[in-house]
């Protein structure tokens, strides 16, 4: 099987590094190009990241000697690869325009950025939940005037812990949700060495995170109507997003009311028996078990459980009734795997099986 040629746009940052590691032995995709800012352009990838490599594993041999391109050389890059992952660090407007420029150069873009998440014909994908939203891509292509170029986006990392377990309970019609997320420093692209202010500390503010956490789930649960994705009208979601001193893993404390209140056992059964749609089951990066409930009173724990299913599964625990809400529980996701690069790779795998990613 000939592998698709992949470009990493923003490949020198933490998420770009995670992409490089995840793709080193991928059966369908091969990184053949890395692009970043002008200051890294012209260096080998190893030279560009040597003083800021943040992964626990070494730089993959297959990308060490790639010469880093300037991410804004869209013409050249688009001629050299079959599709790109974008994890570049720019302001939103610059990112939106750059990703659209790649798409208009007939380049499929799988984005890790937030800039295009609110564009109504851009899908925000969690393959196990809203894989049907890929249908909007054909409408997006008509708007862009492209044959193969498009943009697909991965959701914000802060929602990956609680959107999957709530998705398994949609038949009970959740009406109101309060979610407080306790988020790792890697969500800011940092290590402890780069973030001394977090040691012995909790920072109760992450810029822009609460807006994303409250609005993006409604798009994921929305429907395609009149050539756009129309957000779900409920549940009403309120959040607080807090930075805590852990390396990886976003933990959430969730409180929820349902229109039709399920029993505790019905909730646990819905989680444990959740089955992803057939199209998402056998993808190379898909977890064998997407959702897992712990009976132990002190689980999930970030350090112990963030790597469940290679970091692609979601864990829940401490489900109990509440005095103000009907139920409360805690849940956990790995923010740079399921929540970032891994989620992007999984989306690309889905898009390939559906015929949206092809060799030129």
Task: Predict the CATH topology of the largest domain.
Answer: Dihydrodipicolinate Reductase, domain 2
- Helix tally equals 13
> At the first level of CATH, what is the class of the largest domain?
Alpha Beta
- Can you give the helix content as a percent range? 25-40%
Average pLDDT figure: 97
Shape field: globular
Task: Spell out the CATH superfamily of the largest domain.
Answer: Dihydrodipicolinate Reductase, domain 2
Main beta sheet strand tally, sense and closure: 6 strands, parallel
> What are the segments in which pLDDT stays under 50 over at least 5 consecutive residues?
none
Organism: Clostridium acetobutylicum (strain ATCC 824 / DSM 792 / JCM 1419 / IAM 19013 / LMG 5710 / NBRC 13948 / NRRL B-527 / VKM B-1787 / 2291 / W)
Family: Belongs to the aspartate-semialdehyde dehydrogenase family.
Keywords: NADP, Oxidoreductase
GO biological process, one term: threonine biosynthetic process
């Amino acid at each position: 099987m000939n592998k698709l040629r992949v470009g990493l746009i923003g490949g020198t940052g933490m998420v770009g590094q995670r992409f490089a590691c995840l793709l080193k032995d991928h059966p369908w995709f091969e990184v053949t190009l890395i692009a970043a800012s002008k200051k890294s352009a012209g260096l080998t990838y190893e030279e560009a990241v040597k003083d800021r490599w943040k992964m626990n594993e070494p730089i993959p041999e297959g990308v060490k000697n790639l010469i880093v391109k300037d991410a804004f050389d869209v013409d050249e890059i688009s001629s050299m690869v079959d599709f790109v992952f974008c994890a570049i660090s720019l302001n939103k407007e610059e990112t939106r325009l750059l990703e659209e420029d790649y798409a208009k150069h007939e380049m499929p873009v799988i984005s890790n950025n937030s800039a295009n998440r609110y564009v109504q014909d851009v899908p925000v994908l969690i393959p196990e939940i809203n894989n049907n939203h890929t249908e909007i891509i054909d409408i997006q292509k008509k708007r862009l005037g492209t044959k193969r170029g498009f943009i697909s986006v991965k959701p914000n990392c802060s929602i990956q812990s609680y959107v999957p377990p709530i998705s398994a309970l949609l038949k009970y019609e959740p009406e109101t949700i309060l979610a407080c997320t306790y988020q790792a420093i890697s969500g800011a692209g940092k290590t402890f060495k780069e973030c001394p202010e977090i040691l012995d500390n909790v920072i109760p503010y992450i810029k822009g995170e609460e807006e994303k956490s409250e609005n993006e789930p409604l798009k994921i649960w929305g429907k395609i109507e009149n050539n756009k994705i129309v957000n779900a009208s409920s549940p009403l979601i309120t959040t607080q997003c807090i930075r805590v001193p852990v390396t990886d893993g976003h933990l959430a404390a969730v409180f929820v009311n349902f229109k039709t209140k399920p029993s505790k056992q019905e909730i646990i059964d819905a989680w444990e028996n959740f089955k992803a749609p057939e199209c998402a089951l056998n993808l190379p990066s898909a977890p064998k078990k997407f959702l897992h409930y712990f009976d132990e009173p002190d689980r999930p724990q970030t350090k112990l459980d963030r790597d469940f299913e290679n970091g692609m599964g979601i864990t829940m625990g401490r489900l109990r009734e509440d005095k103000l809400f009907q139920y409360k529980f805690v849940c956990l996701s790995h923010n740079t795997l399921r929540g970032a690069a891994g989620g992007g790779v999984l989306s690309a795998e889905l898009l390939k099986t559906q015929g949206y990613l092809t060799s030129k």
